[in-house]
Design a protein that fits this description.
The chain has 15 helices and 29 strands. By secondary structure, it is of the alpha+beta class. The protein has a five-stranded mixed β-sheet, with no helix packed on it. α3 packs antiparallel against α6 (66-75). The protein starts with a helix and ends with a strand. WD repeats lie at residues 372-414, 485-525.
C-alpha cells in the first residue's frame, strides 16, 4: 500500500519506464507531506493519501503550513518535467529557510546551555566562596581569641615572675637582717626577737614551698619539656577540650573576644598558686582590679590534673591463700567511713575485711582478713555506711539485701524484696538510715544494673538500666523519673555522682559519659558533657569509682584506666601481670579482666581487683 503511495504517475503507467530523478522528487514530496500532516486513524490517512494522487491536500495542512503545502504540490506535479530539479530543491527558499531556522535554533539552544553552565559554575563558586569566607571568619575569630588567651597567659606569667623576684629579694634581705617583716610567700608576719628561731624555721619552709610554686626558668623549662610529649600525643583531643571550654564561655558571656574581661569568677583549686597565698591573688589581678579568666583557670586545672601524674605504681598486693580458686572473682570492693578498712566480696560468697595499713606497710606471704563473713549466695555488691563505721550492706545473686555488723560478724537486717539478682546497693551519704532498695519500689521495664544516692540528698537516686538509659528519681514521687539521660548504645552498668549535679555513667558500649544535670532542665538529656574512651568493656562489669575529678574504671584487657573529667582520653593505665604458676613467666591471659575498682576516699590511692581475685593497691605517681 505504501509502495503505491510513493509511486509517481509515470511509473504507474504500463510503459515500463524505471525510476528517474523526477520520480525521486515526487517521492520526496510525498514524504514531506507525511512529515507535516498527522492523522489520528489509519483509515483517515489512507483517504488522505488516495486524494494526494490527485494533488488534493487536507484543509488543515493548507491553513497551518501554506508554504510547505505549495512546495509539496510542486514536487508531486503529474508532469515530470514540471517538477523542480534536485538542485532546485536544495536551493529552494523552503529548505534554506528551514535550515537557517534550524541552525538558529541550535545556536540558541547552545547559547542557552552555555549560559546555564556559566550560571551553575557561578553559583558553585559563590557557594564555595561563602563557605570559605565563613571558615575564614571563624578562623579569624579563633586566632583573635587565641591571641587574647595568649596575652592573658603572658600577663599571668609576668605577674608570677614579679612575685618570684619579690620573694627572692625578700629572702636576701631577711638573710642579711635588714628587714623586720618577713614574708610567708605573701602572708606578712611581724618579726619578734623571742620568736626568731621559730619564725626562721617557718620562713625556710615557706621559701621552700615558694620555690616549688615559682621555680626557676631552668626548672620550668625542664618540666615543660618532660610533659610536652604527653601533650603532643593527645594534641587533637586537648584542642577539642580547649575549644569546648571556650565555646561554653562564649555562650555564657555572648562575646568570645571579651571573655577574659567578662568572666571574673575564680575557679577554686587553681594550680596557678598555693591556696591562700598572695601569689594567686597577684597573678589573677587585672589592670581593672578584677579577676580574669575564670574559664582558663578551669581548663588549666584540668590540664595540670592531666599532667600531674605519670604512672600508676603498685604500692601493695593482697596475697590470699585461695587466689588460685576458680571461683574467686571479686565483684565489689569498698573502704569504710575512715578509710582504715576495706572489704571485698564476690562469687566466693564471702565478705572479707582487711586493714589497709597492714596490707600496705607489712610485707607478708599471705594476708588474712581481720573479719570474714559468709553468705549463702554469691555476692554482687557491698556498700559501707558513712555514719555507722561497722555497718556494711550487701546484695547477692538470689535477690537478698542484707546489712552486716562487722564487729559481730553477723547480719542484723535482711530484706527480701527482690526476686532476682540485685546488682547494686548503696547507702545514702546524707541519710545513713536510707539504703537503696528499702525506701520504696521503683518499677522499671529493664534490669537495674546500678543505683546510687545523690551525695547531698537522700531523696534523689540515679539508676543505670539495661535499656541503655540512666534514670534520675525523686523518691517522693517514684511513678516516673524526673530526668532521663540518653546516649549509651548498650547496657548502663554503673552510675556514680561526681557531685550533686554531675553524673558519670559506664556502659558495655566501651565508653564512660559525663552528664551535667544543671545545664538542662528538660526531662530528657541526650547531650553528655564528655565521652571517655580508651578502655575495653563489651560484656563484663569492670568497676567505676570517682575521686576529686579522677575517674577510675577497669577494662577487659586486664587493665585499670584513670581519666580526668576535663579530657576524654585516659590519664593513666596499668596492666595486671599474669604469672604462669608452672613456668613463673608473665603471660597474656585474655580471659581475665578488671572486675572492680575503688578510690581510697579523695586520695590518689586506688584499690583494684581482677577476675582471678588478684587485688592490688595502686598509687598515682
Amino acid at each position: 500500500m505504501e509502495l503505491n503511495w510513493y509511486t509517481s504517475p509515470e511509473e504507474a503507467d504500463d510503459s515500463g519506464g524505471g525510476a528517474t530523478f523526477a520520480s525521486d522528487v515526487y517521492r520526496l514530496g510525498v514524504l514531506l507531506f507525511e512529515l507535516f500532516c498527522s492523522f489520528e486513524t489509519l483509515e483517515e490517512k489512507m483517504r488522505a493519501m488516495a486524494n494526494l494522487r490527485y494533488r488534493v491536500l487536507p484543509p488543515q495542512l493548507l491553513l497551518k503550513w501554506p508554504k510547505e503545502a505549495s512546495f509539496c504540490q510542486l514536487m508531486m506535479h503529474p508532469v515530470p518535467d514540471t517538477r523542480p530539479k534536485m538542485s532546485e530543491v536544495l536551493q529552494s527558499e523552503f529548505l534554506n529557510q528551514s535550515r537557517n531556522s534550524l541552525e538558529e535554533r541550535e545556536a540558541a539552544l547552545r547559547l542557552r546551555e552555555e549560559i546555564e553552565e556559566q550560571e551553575l559554575l557561578l553559583d558553585f563558586l559563590l557557594q564555595l566562596q561563602k563557605r570559605k569566607q565563613d571558615i575564614a571568619d571563624n578562623l579569624q575569630d579563633t586566632v583573635a581569641f587565641l591571641s587574647s588567651d595568649i596575652n592573658e597567659v603572658l600577663h599571668r606569667q609576668s605577674a608570677l615572675g614579679q612575685c618570684g623576684n619579690f620573694s627572692i629579694e625578700l629572702d636576701k634581705e631577711v638573710s642579711s637582717g635588714t628587714v623586720e617583716d618577713q614574708s610567708d610567700c605573701g602572708s606578712r608576719k611581724r618579726f619578734r626577737p623571742e620568736l626568731h628561731a621559730v619564725d626562721m624555721e617557718e620562713h625556710s619552709r615557706s621559701l621552700e614551698e615558694c620555690s616549688r610554686t615559682v621555680p626557676s626558668s631552668v626548672v620550668i623549662q625542664e618540666s615543660v619539656l618532660s610533659k610536652s610529649s604527653r601533650l603532643m600525643k593527645n594534641f587533637k583531643k586537648l584542642e577539642t577540650a580547649y575549644f569546648l571550654a571556650r565555646s561554653k564561655l562564649a555562650r555564657q558571656v555572648g562575646n568570645p573576644l571579651r571573655s577574659c574581661d567578662q568572666v571574673v569568677k575564680r575557679t577554686t583549686g587553681s594550680a596557678v598558686g598555693t591556696e591562700g597565698s598572695s601569689i594567686d591573688d597577684f597573678a589573677l589581678e587585672g589592670h581593672s582590679g578584677r579577676r580574669q579568666g575564670g574559664w582558663m583557670n578551669s581548663f588549666l586545672e584540668g590540664l595540670c590534673r592531666y599532667l600531674s601524674f605519670s604512672q600508676l605504681k603498685v604500692r601493695a598486693e593482697l596475697k590470699q591463700c585461695d587466689l588460685l580458686n576458680s571461683s574467686n572473682l571479686v565483684c565489689s570492693v569498698g573502704f569504710d567511713r575512715d578509710n582504715e578498712f576495706f572489704a571485698t566480696a564476690g562469687v566466693n560468697k564471702k565478705i572479707k575485711v582487711f586493714e589497709y595499713n597492714m596490707i600496705v606497710n607489712e610485707h607478708r606471704d599471705i594476708h588474712y582478713p581481720v573479719v570474714e563473713m559468709s553468705n549463702k549466695s554469691k555476692l554482687s555488691c557491698i556498700s559501707w555506711n558513712s555514719y555507722m563505721k561497722s555497718h556494711i550492706a550487701s546484695s547477692d545473686f538470689d535477690g537478698l539485701v542484707q546489712v552486716w555488723d562487722v564487729t559481730r560478724s553477723q547480719v542484723f537486717v535482711e530484706m527480701r524484696e527482690h526476686e532476682r539478682r540485685v546488682w547494686s546497693v548503696d547507702f545514702s551519704l546524707a541519710d545513713p538510715t536510707k539504703l537503696a532498695g528499702s525506701v520504696g519500689t521503683i518499677r522499671t521495664r529493664a534490669n537495674v544494673c546500678s543505683v546510687q544516692f545523690q551525695p547531698d540528698s537522700a531523696r534523689s537516686i540515679a539508676i543505670g538500666s539495661a535499656d541503655h538509659k540512666i534514670y534520675c528519681y525523686d523518691l517522693r514521687n517514684i511513678r516516673a523519673p524526673y530526668c532521663t539521660l540518653v546516649g549509651h548504645t548498650k547496657t548502663v552498668s554503673y552510675v556514680k555522682y561526681v557531685d550533686a549535679s554531675t553524673i558519670v555513667s559506664g556502659s558495655t558500649d566501651n565508653s564512660l559519659k559525663l552528664w551535667d544535670l544543671s545545664t538542662n532542665q528538660a526531662r530528657v538529656i541526650d547531650n553528655p558533657v564528655q565521652t571517655f574512651t580508651g578502655h575495653t568493656n563489651t560484656k563484663n562489669f569492670v568497676g567505676l569509682s570517682i575521686s576529686d575529678g579522677y575517674i577510675a574504671t577497669g577494662s577487659e584487657t586486664n587493665e585499670v584506666f584513670v581519666y580526668h573529667k576535663a579530657f576524654p582520653m585516659p590519664v593513666l593505665a596499668y596492666k595486671f601481670n599474669v604469672t604462669d604458676p608452672i613456668s613463673g613467666q608473665e603471660i597474656d591471659d585474655q580471659s581475665q579482666f578488671i572486675s572492680c575498682v575503688c578510690w581510697r576516699g579523695q586520695s590518689s590511692t586506688l584499690l583494684s581487683a581482677n577476675s582471678s581475685g588478684n587485688i592490688k593497691v595502686l598509687e598515682m605517681d
